[in-house]
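Class, look over these structure tokens:
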Amino acid sequence: MNIDPVKLQSCLPRFRISFLRRNHRTLPRRSSGTIFALNDPPWSVFNGHNGKLETALKDVSKHAQTALAVLRIVTALLFIEHGTMKLFSFPSGGVAGTGGLGGLSPFMLTAGLLEVIGGLAILVGVLTRPVALLLSGQMAVAYWMIHFPGNSIFPVLNGGDAAILFCFVFLYLVLAGPGAWSLDAKFKRI
């Protein structure tokens, strides 16, 4: 049995019109008012419904800079906490075996200072891109020097998952900038 594609195409509009008469409220429409054809891509369903999805995505994208600022601020607060733990043994007992600021190795002292000072700079959004690049590099070094040579190659087992997350969040801040609520944005240094 041979099916002629031209005849098949000529039957489709009639089918769509008769189907529309029965189910006119359930079929999405194109912006031009026509019904979807069978050869439309699957995602074209989301472009119908009077553009509600497109409008919703535009509404969400208006808040992208605010969401970026929230990511920057929360990341900075968590990062500062890691630095204060190394330098001042706060909020816990400090880095294992160091006994606070006096017992820190130069490597750990440098890491603690970078975490507190760099975290404060990221928090208020001052020189966000260069500071984030420096802190991203610090976290990469911390993972490969401290966490990776440990017991396991899996980050969750060697304790390096936070270092990896900080590394890539800071790398994202290098590329995306500080977002809203930053001194960089206030002084147009983005």
